[in-house]
Specification:
The complex is a heterodimer of chains A (252) and B (181).
Chain A lengths: L9 H5 L33 E2 L4 H4 L28 E9 L10 E6 L24 E5 L5 E7 L4 E3 L5 E3 L2 E6 L8 E6 L18 H5 L4 E2 L10 E4 L2 E2 L17
Parallel strand pairs in A: 2-11, 2-12
Antiparallel strand pairs in A: 2-5, 3-4, 3-8, 6-7, 8-9, 10-11
Chain B lengths: L32 E8 L9 E7 L22 E5 L5 E6 L5 E2 L5 E2 L2 E8 L6 E6 L4 H5 L18 E3 L2 E3 L2 E2 L9 E2 L1
Parallel strand pairs in B: 1-10, 1-11
Antiparallel strand pairs in B: 1-4, 2-3, 2-7, 5-6, 7-8, 9-10
The chains are: A mainly beta (252), B mainly beta (181).
Amino acid sequence: MNPSKTATPDTALSELPGYRNDPDGTHPSLNFADYKSTRLRHPKQPLVLLPHMLTEVTGPVLGEGRIGELDNDLTRQHAGEPQGQRIIVHGRLLDGDGRPVPNSLVEIWQANAGGRYRHTGDRWPSPLDPNFDGAGRTLTDSDGRYEFTTIKPGAYPWGNHDNAWRPAHIHFSVFGRAFTQRLVTQMYFPDDPLFFQDPIFNSVPDPAARQRMISRFDMDRTTDHWALGFEFDIVLRGREATPFENDEDEDE
Amino acid sequence: MSTPSQTVGPFLSIVLPWEDGPFVVPDGTPGAVWIRGVVTDGAGEPIPDGLVETWQADPQGRFDHPDDPRGAAPGFRGFGRCPTDPEGNYAILTQLPGAIPGQNGVRQAPHINVSVLARGLLHRVVTRIYFPDNAEANAADPVLATVPEERRGTLLAEPVDGGYRFDVRLQGEGETVFFDV
């Protein structure tokens, strides 16, 4: 008698393919001394390898109920328009094999044109903009595409080191399809003169990987007398190939 | 080629907290328990600007996801999200997960996957919550078995009034076990 006999046997659920590791240098180390806030916040014990099983290859599927009508247009969330350079930020959410991730939640947050966040913890004495919250949400479409209308965030100073300034950036939070694909990153703008001194940008060891956080100026999506276009694709981990059923090797 | 991870920074609360984020199940759901805890740094100081996210199976060990053809109980989202308060506290209301299929026919003990994101974390850290009530299943769990015995306790929730307590220590004495996913 098989005590675990159910409509879907455990074996079918235990052979789901996992997700590939990214090449070394793709992601920052948690211990990165140049970014001072890591000092007391990075684990010192070695991480324990977690095989990808059902909890890891599944993940939250967060649907349309979360999105308000103007959540993808940060310039229309108040009575007036925000100060600053209007921009369109668009791109695709893809997996490591170039496949689109459709119907997936994308959340963004950013500073205003003067580099000030609408947050009680931001003491930078640049004025708040009454017409700008800096919060956006959208779902990718069936081709994995997303689009936001917003304003270009300003650079701002911070206390990490003497005369430290963050390059202009927009924070992105995405889920993909699996717990293993969860990613929070920052989108930067081309040719920012502040990259060289920013420990967060430079925490990514591989210089080629750093470039993948920089959006591309997009003349095709730049709209006459309206907004500059920037394109930013987000690529999540790819999935292992489905294991072959090789019955010849089985002892049955 | 994957996009690199970056820190959430200090201002994640502009958009990431949801009003219903802490409610994996609606308030009043039979069998619902609060899992509460504090997130602390290497000096033992609370982390007031972090985010705790949870992902779990329903009480029958099923997930609300296309890769789990069994599906979860209707209305069971499986996902929880709570920012830490000025004292580093978070709270998630959920139902306890069931046992979950593992590899090679070995069942995993009931567990909840946890991501912690914060300023100073250049990418999330991942841990798991296990429950001491499941001593036998925990002893047979293939993931717990790979964790050094003297550190396994950091993955066990502590039963308290109304639910469980699960603290996360990012660094130092009693450092929580974190996983490489």
